[in-house]
Amino acid sequence: MSTAELASYREILLALRGRLTGDVSSLADEALNSEDEASGNLSHVPIHMADLSTYERELTLGLLENEEQTLEEIAAALGRIEQGTFGHCEGCGKAIPKDRLHALPYARSCVGCARGSQA
Asked: Distance between CA atoms of 31 and 56, rounded to whole angstroms?
């Protein structure tokens, strides 16, 4: 992979990290504040507000966990760029197709190895 291509992927990863960092902050604030917002009296709501608050909090915490995991993957991909291993499958060592890297710039493996690890 050329230096220009690596620089392009680095920029994509840094932009994604910046966006997700903001999302994580918002989700964390939302999770912390969801209990305070549930104290209102909304008699037209078809479920109990305590149940809604618990559901929203669990959903928000699940989203937060997913985004934090993605941030870890992005950090690992940036590390692979620095180490010179970015774009190579950790399973078979072959080059990860550029189409896959464009769709998932922090991919660690080719599609074949990723499918094999899910089995």
From this structure: 8
Could you tell me which of 13, 66, 61 has the C-alpha nearest to residue 35?
61
Backbone angles phi, psi at 96, to 5 degrees: -80, 130
| 66, 86 Cβ separation under 8 angstroms | no
Tokens 């305070």, residue located: 36
Tens of pLDDT, residue by residue over 32-69, are 565 455 445 444 545 554 555 777 778 877 888 888 89
- Report how far apart the first and last C-alpha atoms of the chain are (Å, whole number): 30
Alpha helices by DSSP H, listed for the chain, are: 3-37, 49-83, 98-103, 111-118
Cα(10)–Cα(82) distance, integer angstroms: 10
Backbone angles phi, psi at 88, to 5 degrees: -115, 135
Question: Is 83 within 8 Å of 105 (Cβ atoms)?
Answer: no
pLDDT tens-digit map of 7-24: 999 999 999 998 888 766
The DSSP secondary-structure symbol of 119 reads -
